[in-house]
Structures are given as structure tokens and as C-alpha cells.
Design the sequence.
């Protein structure tokens, strides 16, 4: 029925069907008649890959988004599943805009097939996700050949946990600098890069239009933070709206650097993620002070995992009470809030409640102050949509 329908299906998500794994696999041929196919973790065989390739090569091809994450696509004894898929990707009929290949164990041969296909038909792809694949230097070099193509229009590139080396990072930055104007989102978390300064050369480019940057768990050093902030501050036309530094053991000096960025009149950050960054009292003070001086843009603040003292929470409350504060999301999970800190926090939220939509206070031992939280929830100006407690 799905294949023969005259109406093209908007989304085919195999995980939504209440059937066995074999039953889900029997639904895969319906990929020919849908715009978005979510086939993650479906144990795709070579026959299934042929079906997907056929959907990409069909005229017209309806597929615009394809998620193959969690499928073993490496070279096999009877040939490469990825070579079959590449034949579909390089078809002139292919109009794919989003391709997700997270945790697909891509080999060097697979990368070569992928890049060759993308280079032969690069202009439609906007989002590429190859997280969790050990691309090695050779695989990343091949991907850079695609990024350097003048016809490449990629807007989102996800390379988290790809074991990028310093050499790989240098190749990546060089490729991005040669064709920087289209990229909007870059995710590099989980790569222990030795020299973030190379990335900063790209960020300093006047043609850089990056809006989202993720560097979570990248073991940023003090020098790395200084280079990063300097690069962002040196580009007055900076478009950066989302900065993710989770899981980096930021020192007080690092937070001072970030504070300098937040105080910059050119800073337009809307989301700042500092979860599990081991923030100290001095770090918290450095963070909150610039937020108060340039706070109208910030919408999401993630501080979970911090060990906040009462003085730290007081500083945060000063920010929340400001009439110019437009914060919509605040996450303070596992911050060891005391009852006094919690009371101060709720009081601050009550004084300026209308913008906040998401509040996470889970894993704080403050069960005796539920009454104070309820006072906030009862406020006629409270617009909270999500609460974790």
C-alpha cells in the first residue's frame, strides 16, 4: 500500500511500526515513495542498499532526507554496501539534502566511494552527519576534497567523535577556509584536537557565516580558549549563535576569556552550554557579570554539573532578575543547590517569569522547598512548559 500510493509519504520511520525487525525490513521498499526515510539500526543488507539506491536514482526521486545511522556499511566479503549506495548518490536524479551516517563504521574505501559520489553531485546536499566513524587521516582528506568543491553547498557538518588528529584538523580547516560562506553548523565534539588555533583561522575569516559551533569534550587548554575567544571577537560580523563547550575542564582564566567575549558588543550568542565544566566560584562570577551587561540575546543557558556556592547562585539571580533578561531555558541539574540557594533562585524567577519555558533542577537535594517552587508555578505570568525536578 505504501509503495503503490499515489500520494508521496512525508516520513517513513521504521521504528514507529509495531512489528518485528524482519517486519520492519519488509517495509524498506517503501523508501521509493517518501521524502524522509529514517532507516537507522535496521541491519541493512546489500539487497536493501540496492533498494535505497534505486530510490535515489528514480525519476523523479522524492527522497530529501536519508538516515542510515547504526547500520554496518563497511566493506564486506561479497562487495561493499556503500558502493551500491554511492551509485544512487551520484545519480543526476538524486536530490538528497540530508544524509546521516552516524556509527556506520565507514572504512577508507567507503569514504572514497562516498566522496566520489558527493563530488559528482554536490549542489543539493545541505546536511552531512558522519559522527562516530573513525575516518583516519586518509578518510578526512577525502572528505575535504568534497568540501573544497566550488559547487559544495553544505550548511551542516557533524564530525563528532571521529578521532580527528592535528593533521586532520589542519586539512579540515584548510578546506573550510577555501569555501566558507555556506557552512552554518560545525560539530567537532569528542575530538581531542591538539591545536584549536587552526580552527580559529577559519572563524576569523570575514566570509565565515558559522552560527553553531560544538567543541564538547575536546580537552580545551587555556591557550585554546584564548585563541577561540580572540577569533570570535576579531570578527565583528560574527554570526555565532550557539556555542557548546560541555565536558571541558575550564579554568578560571578560561572563563575570564569567555567573559570578555560575552562583553563584546558584537556578541550575539543565544545558546551557551557549559555543562560539566567544573566551574568554580570565580568562574561563576566571571560568567554572570558579562551576562548582566550584555544579556538581551541569551536564550538558553546550560550549567548542569557545577558545584555552586550560595554566592554563585546570588550572582546568577541578579542576572535572572534583570528586566532585560530573555532567558527561555535554564538547566541546573546536579549543581548541589542548598535550600537557601534554591529559595533565592525561585525568588528571582518569580520577579521575571514570563520568558522562561524550560527549567531543569533535577538531582539537587532540595525536596523541603517545594512550596517555594509552587509559588513560582502559581504566578499568572509563569509560562513554563517543561519542568524537571
Sequence:
Amino acid at each position: 500500500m505504501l509503495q503503490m500510493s499515489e500520494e508521496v509519504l512525508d516520513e517513513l520511520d521504521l521504528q514507529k511500526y509495531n512489528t518485528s525487525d524482519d517486519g520492519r525490513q519488509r517495509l524498506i521498499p517503501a523508501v521509493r515513495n517518501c521524502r524522509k526515510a529514517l532507516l537507522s539500526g535496521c541491519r541493512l543488507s546489500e539487497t536493501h542498499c540496492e533498494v535505497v539506491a534505486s530510490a535515489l536514482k528514480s525519476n523523479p526521486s522524492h527522497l530529501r532526507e536519508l538516515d542510515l545511522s547504526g547500520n554496518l556499511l563497511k566493506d564486506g566479503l561479497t562487495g561493499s554496501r556503500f558502493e551500491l549506495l554511492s551509485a544512487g548518490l551520484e545519480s543526476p536524479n538524486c536530490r538528497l539534502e540530508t544524509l546521516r551516517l552516524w556509527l556506520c563504521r565507514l572504512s577508507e574505501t567507503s569514504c572514497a566511494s562516498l566522496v566520489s559520489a558527493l563530488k559528482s553531485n554536490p549542489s543539493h546536499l545541505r546536511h552531512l552527519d558522519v559522527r562516530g566513524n573513525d575516518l583516519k587521516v586518509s578518510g578526512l582528506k577525502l572528505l575535504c576534497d568534497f568540501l573544497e568543491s566550488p559547487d559544495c553547498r553544505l550548511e551542516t557538518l557533524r564530525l563528532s567523535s571521529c578521532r580527528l588528529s592535528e593533521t586532520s584538523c589542519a586539512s579540515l580547516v584548510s578546506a573550510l577556509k577555501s569555501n566558507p560562506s555556506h557552512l552554518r553548523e560545525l560539530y567537532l565534539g569528542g575530538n581531542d584536537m591538539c591545536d584549536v588555533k587552526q580552527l580559529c583561522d577559519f572563524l576569523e575569516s570575514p566570509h565565515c557565516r558559522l552560527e553553531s559551533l560544538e567543541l564538547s569534550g575536546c580537552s580545551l587548554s587555556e591557550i585554546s580558549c584564548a585563541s577561540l575567544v580572540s577569533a570570535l571577537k576579531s570578527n565583528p560580523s560574527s554570526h555565532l549563535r550557539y556555542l557548546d563547550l560541555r565536558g571541558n575542564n575550564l579554568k578560571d582564566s578560561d572563563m575570564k576569556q569567555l567573559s570578555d567575549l560575552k562583553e563584546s558588543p558584537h556578541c550575539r550568542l543565544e545558546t551557551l552550554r557549559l555543562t560539566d565544566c567544573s566551574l568554580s566560584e570565580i568562574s561563576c562570577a566571571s560568567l554572570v557579570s558579562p551576562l548582566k551587561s550584555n544579556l538581551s540575546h541569551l536564550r538558553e543557558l546550560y550549567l548542569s554539573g557545577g558545584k555552586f556556592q550560595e554566592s554563585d547562585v546570588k550572582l546568577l539571580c541578579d542576572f535572572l532578575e534583570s528586566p532585560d533578561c530573555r532567558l527561555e531555558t535554564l538547566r541546573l541539574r546536579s549543581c548541589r543547590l542548598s535550600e537557601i540557594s534554591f529559595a533565592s533562585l525561585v525568588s528571582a524567577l518569580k520577579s521575571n517569569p514570563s520568558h522562561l519555558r524550560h527549567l531543569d533542577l533535577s538531582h539537587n537535594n532540595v525536596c523541603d522547598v517545594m512550596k517555594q517552587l509552587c509559588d513560582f508555578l502559581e504566578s499568572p505570568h509563569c509560562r513554563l512548559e517543561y519542568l524537571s525536578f
Notes: The chain has a mean pLDDT of 87.
